[in-house]
């Protein structure tokens, strides 16, 4: 008989019907549920239910069926059905870690039948083994009991079928006999799988790296051989001794989606040894020591004790801005505006109704002058006025050329849209100087205020990195903002971009399109640029390539189209930290004044960073279309590692000093292939900050 523990479990956790399920029953159950996968249980007609008690009863019944369907799918080794159930139900709804009436969990069945794909799918969802198998003996005894009781039940039913005359009851017993025969074979297969399995081999490719001045990161792969049983967890151990005695700590990893672990709370400057072992239903396998065998928690800043570059900068700038406002708040020009709120708190749905106000001053056509347009988009739709026009306001009708410094000033203003009123007042005070530059910038602020007032929205978004110009003397500055709300607006006109492009009647020739026509033609490219500008890099250490080119009034920087807010780059590794030892090696390499090594046979000094840099440099040179032999004259920027938060860091690769910045008229013999942009340096800095 079963152990008393399993009998108690049967009484407490009986979740399956009294009789066994057959393969055909499993198919019927799954087929009945498959039509409901896309409907949550709360989508039933609640009006037909009487009281909350019946609703809860229906809910439990529905989830019970999904739990039973999961057991049946695992027993039938149907990977597609298992994945479908895991996709449409949460682990809680499936009761993923609650044993059935036989004391088994879905993961137990998967690993004892050695079905690795189903076991991995369950493990990644959070499935666990039954906690009642406290030893190998208890698991073996339980499997033997299941096999013996199933065999006994088959014999009993066989005798009844043979001795009874044909009848309806006999037909039902024949069905039960087939179901028990199938379950008997399943239990025998599970018992044989357990008996033939052995503990797993040691994990492979155990790599140790320095994550910070107080942590180490260990990554590893599955064992080369699991010995007929799926690995269900791993153990990471660490010690200051290579013999691991005494042991300083250990951690068991049961979430197997990503095989890595960060050991926190370590002492900087202390060497730690790490090893990893794997576990299956037969127990723990042998441990595998890491490569390198030990590591010392540290950070490159410990080399000379320097503080982070940006520490306290944001607070200092906020304080400085507050001081400037304090100085100006008592100006006479501010008195009429004291009662005016500086930030209009319109809801988007209400304020956007200004687009259709009869007094709207949006322009339909452009004359010779400087203009501002605001592009608001959601998915493939764009916001237009009631006349199907993109919102455009005039800045200056006598301004025939836009100085780059004025444009770059406006891009900085875009970082403080809610301070436009205050900026206008400050510029008004200084207008007595009659400066042409101040007058132009004051008109820009007026146009921004007009756009904000007509739209009822303070934030106009990000300024596109270059204005649109046409041969008629029009200059169009473009701002872009994505509307991410799912709210439906009653009085706002959203028009698909394709419809707007096809319905607009151009008043210019294809050879000389107006700035508005050019905007409509290129609007999808501009929206793509705006979306890519907000993308972030995945955590890791990167090698960036700094290449500048100068013009009369600006310096531009080379960036990739797919990520224009970051320099051209390749990923070196997933660990963003540079340890003190690695930084000392980089400093030593820079002080020798030798070129960046590219010879694969060069002395590697047993430094993994050396090999990683070699691979990254080759990849980066190919990316920017520079022959690899030219890399011998390139330099690594050795003054600092560029940290972008805690998860992304950069090493910079610099061309020779004479080639860092290409002068006007100077030919660049190695032009990057398609897929790159050159942005004004100030625009790039703003994009990186965003």
Structure notes:
This protein has 690 residues and is α+β, with helices and mostly antiparallel strands. It has four domains: 58-196, Serine Threonine Protein Phosphatase 5, Tetratricopeptide repeat; 207-298, Immunoglobulin-like; 369-534, Nucleoside Triphosphate Pyrophosphohydrolase, CATH 3.90.79; 540-592 and 602-680, Alpha-Beta Complex (Nucleoside Triphosphate Pyrophosphohydrolase), CATH 3.90.79. It has 19 helices and 24 strands. The strands form five sheets. Strands 9, 10, 11, 12, 13, 14 and 15 form a seven-stranded mixed beta sheet that branches. 29% of the residues are buried. Mean pLDDT is 81; it is low at 1-50, 334-350 and 598-603. One of its GO terms (cellular component) is spindle.
Compile the SSE list and pairings.
Blueprint: H1 4-13, H2 23-34, H3 51-75, H4 79-88, H5 91-94, H6 106-112, H7 116-125, H8 136-163, H9 168-196, E1 204-212, E2 215-221, E3 233-239, E4 249-253, E5 260-263, E6 272-280, E7 283-284, E8 288-295, H10 313-328, H11 348-351, E9 369-378, E10 381-384, E11 392-396, H12 404-413, H13 420-429, H14 436-455, E12 462-463, E13 468-469, E14 474-482, E15 493-496, H15 497-503, H16 515-533, E16 540-545, E17 548-550, E18 555-560, E19 568-573, H17 580-591, H18 608-623, E20 635-636, E21 642-644, E22 648-654, E23 661-662, E24 676-680, H19 681-689
Parallel strand pairs: 9-14, 16-22, 17-23
Antiparallel strand pairs: 1-2, 2-5, 3-4, 3-6, 6-7, 6-8, 9-10, 9-11, 10-15, 12-14, 13-14, 16-19, 17-18, 18-24, 20-22, 21-22
Helix pairs in contact: 2-3, 3-4, 3-6, 4-7, 6-7, 8-9, 13-14
């Amino acid at each position: 008989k079963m152990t008393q523990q399993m009998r108690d479990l049967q009484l407490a956790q009986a979740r399956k019907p009294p009789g066994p399920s057959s393969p055909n029953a499993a198919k019927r159950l799954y087929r009945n549920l498959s039509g409901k996968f896309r409907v949550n249980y709360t989508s039933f007609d609640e009006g037909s239910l009487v009281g909350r008690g019946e609703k809860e009863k229906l809910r439990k019944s529905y989830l019970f069926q999904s739990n039973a369907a999961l057991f049946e799918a695992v027993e039938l080794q149907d990977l597609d059905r298992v994945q479908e159930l895991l996709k449409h139900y949460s682990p809680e709804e499936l009761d993923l870690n609650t044993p059935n009436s036989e004391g088994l969990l879905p993961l137990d069945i998967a690993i004892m039948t050695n079905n690795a794909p189903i076991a991995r799918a369950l493990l990644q969802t959070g499935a666990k083994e039954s906690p009642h198998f406290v030893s190998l003996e208890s698991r073996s005894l339980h499997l033997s009991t299941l096999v013996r009781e199933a065999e006994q039940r088959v014999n009993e039913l066989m005798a009844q079928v043979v001795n009874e005359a044909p009848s309806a009851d006999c037909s039902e017993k024949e069905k039960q006999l087939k179901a028990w025969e199938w379950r008997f074979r399943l239990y025998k297969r599970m018992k044989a799988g357990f008996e033939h399995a052995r503990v797993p081999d040691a994990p492979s490719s155990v790599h140790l790296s320095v994550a910070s001045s107080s942590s180490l990161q260990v990554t590893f792969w599955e064992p080369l051989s699991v010995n007929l049983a799926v690995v269900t967890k791993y153990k990471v151990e660490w010690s200051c001794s290579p013999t691991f005695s005494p042991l300083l700590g250990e951690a068991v990893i049961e979430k197997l989606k990503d095989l890595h672990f960060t050991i926190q709370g370590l002492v900087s400057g202390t060497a730690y040894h790490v090893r990893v072992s794997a576990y299956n239903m037969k127990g723990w396998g042998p441990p595998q020591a890491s490569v390198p065998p030990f590591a010392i928690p540290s950070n490159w800043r410990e080399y000379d004790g320097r503080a982070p570059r940006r520490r306290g900068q944001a607070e200092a700038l906020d304080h400085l801005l507050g001081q400037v406002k304090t100085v100006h708040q008592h100006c006479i020009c501010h008195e009429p505006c004291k009662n005016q709120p500086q930030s209009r708190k319109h809801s988007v749905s209400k304020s956007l109704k200004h687009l259709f106000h009869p007094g709207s001053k949006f322009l339909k056509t452009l004359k010779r002058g400087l203009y501002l347009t605001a592009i608001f988009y959601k998915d493939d739709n764009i916001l237009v006025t009631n006349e199907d026009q993109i919102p455009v306001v005039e800045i200056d009708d006598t301004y025939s050329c836009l100085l780059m410094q004025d444009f770059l000033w406006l891009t900085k203003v875009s970082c403080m849209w809610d301070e436009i009123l205050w900026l206008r007042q400050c510029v008004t005070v200084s207008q007595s100087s009659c400066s042409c530059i101040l007058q132009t910038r004051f008109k820009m602020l007026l146009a921004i205020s007009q756009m904000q007032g007509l739209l009822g929205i303070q934030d106009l978004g990000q300024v596109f990195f270059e204005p649109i110009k046409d041969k008629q003397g029009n200059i169009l500055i473009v701002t872009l903002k994505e509307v991410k709300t799912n709210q439906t607006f009653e009085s706002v006109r959203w028009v698909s971009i394709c419809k707007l492009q096809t319905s607009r009647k151009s008043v210019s020739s294809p050879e000389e399109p107006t700035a508005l026509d050019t905007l409509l033609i290129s609007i999808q490219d501009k929206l793509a640029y705006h979306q890519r500008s907000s993308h972030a890099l995945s955590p890791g250490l990167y090698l960036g390539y700094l290449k500048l080119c100068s013009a009369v009034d600006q310096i531009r920087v080379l960036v990739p189209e797919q990520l224009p807010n970051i320099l051209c780059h390749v990923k070196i590794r997933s660990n963003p930290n540079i340890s003190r030892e690695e930084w000392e090696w980089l400093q030593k390499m820079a002080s020798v004044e030798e070129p960046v090594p590219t010879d694969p046979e060069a002395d590697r000094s047993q430094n993994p960073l050396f090999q990683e840099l070699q691979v990254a440099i080759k990849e980066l040179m190919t990316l920017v279309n520079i022959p690899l032999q030219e890399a011998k004259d390139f330099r690594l920027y050795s003054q600092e590692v560029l940290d972008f938060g805690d998860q992304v860091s950069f090493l910079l690769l610099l061309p020779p000093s004479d080639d860092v910045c290409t002068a006007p008229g100077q030919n660049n013999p190695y032009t990057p292939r398609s897929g790159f942009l050159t942005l004004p340096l100030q625009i790039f800095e703003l994009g990186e900050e965003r």
